[in-house]
């Protein structure tokens, strides 16, 4: 139980750090919270609502991982290095794809309602 408690505290510390220092995470969290309201009221089956919630949450998760990659790269080198640039670009691409999936799913949800 002690290890689980410590893991929880580390996780909360990571969330607090992201909320304090990561603008992209702050913006994505704001969009996430705003989208919870229409998601609750949209006349969609629960499974589809769950899929939208999962996709929206995935954006936050991927952004945290992208921030982790960027932090490690910045720690390792302050000079330009091709592999460091690739690592950052891959993280950014992953964040973009997760955001794109949300846009597509929300578009599909709206088309289902209309």
Structure, briefly:
With 114 residues, the protein is mainly alpha-helical. The chain has helices spanning 2-21, 23-41, 46-76, 82-113.
Throw out a few tags for this protein.
single chain; 89% helix; 4 helices; Helix Hairpins; 114 residues; mainly alpha
Question: If you had to describe this structure to a student in words, what would you say it looks like?
Answer:
This protein has 114 residues and is mostly helical. The chain has a single domain, classed as Helix Hairpins (Orthogonal Bundle), CATH 1.10.287.3610. The protein is built from four helices and no strands. The protein has helices at 2-21, 23-41, 46-76, 82-113. Helix 2 (23-41) runs antiparallel to helix 3 (46-76) and helix 3 packs antiparallel against helix 4. The termini are far apart.
């Amino acid at each position: 139980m002690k290890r689980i408690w410590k893991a929880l505290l580390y996780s909360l510390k990571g969330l607090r750090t992201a909320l304090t220092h990561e603008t992209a995470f702050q913006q994505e969290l704001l969009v996430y919270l705003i989208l919870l309201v229409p998601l609750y009221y949209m006349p969609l089956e629960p499974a589809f609502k769950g899929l939208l919630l999962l996709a929206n949450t995935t954006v936050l998760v991927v952004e945290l991982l992208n921030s982790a990659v960027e932090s490690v790269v910045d720690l390792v080198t302050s000079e330009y290095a091709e592999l460091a640039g690739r690592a950052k670009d891959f993280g950014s691409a992953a964040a973009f794809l997760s955001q794109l999936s949300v846009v597509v799913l929300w578009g599909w949800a709206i088309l289902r309602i209309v």
